[in-house]
Amino acid sequence: MLLQQIGASAAEHEELAPLWAAPWVFGVSIFTILLVLMFVTLSYTNLGNRHEPVEEHSDPHRQHPNKHDNSQGH
């Protein structure tokens, strides 16, 4: 019954919305945009290799997130 309703409503609307370009243009443009975004993302992968790693000094007065919560119940 649902397929009959879908078929009946599709038969009523024979006129399709006009496209401003051929359908393959939409696929190619989306693919191109995603490729550009992928290369932008990959360009940030070397940021950790710019400098030599520096050892973190131990600060005895530093408060860590799980210490000193005073049982506030967050």
Question: Mind explaining what this structure looks like?
Answer:
This protein has 74 residues and is mainly α. Helices cover 43% and strands 0% of the residues. It contains 2 helices and no strands. The two termini are 53 Å apart.
Determine the N-to-C terminus distance: 53 Å
- Rounded Rg: 29 Å
What is the subunit organization of this protein? single chain
Q: Note the total helix count.
A: 2
Order of helices and strands: HH
- Give the DSSP E fraction (strand runs of 2 or more residues): under 5%
Low-pLDDT residue spans: none
Give the % helix: 40-55%
**Record field, number of beta strands:** 0
What class, by secondary structure content? Answer: mainly alpha
Largest sheet: none
Shape: elongated
Summary tags:
single chain, 74 residues, mainly alpha, elongated
Q: How would you summarize this macromolecular structure in one to three sentences?
A:
With 74 residues, this protein is mainly alpha-helical. 43% of the residues lie in helices and 0% in strands. It contains 2 helices and no strands.
Layout of secondary structure:
Elements: H1 2-12, H2 23-43
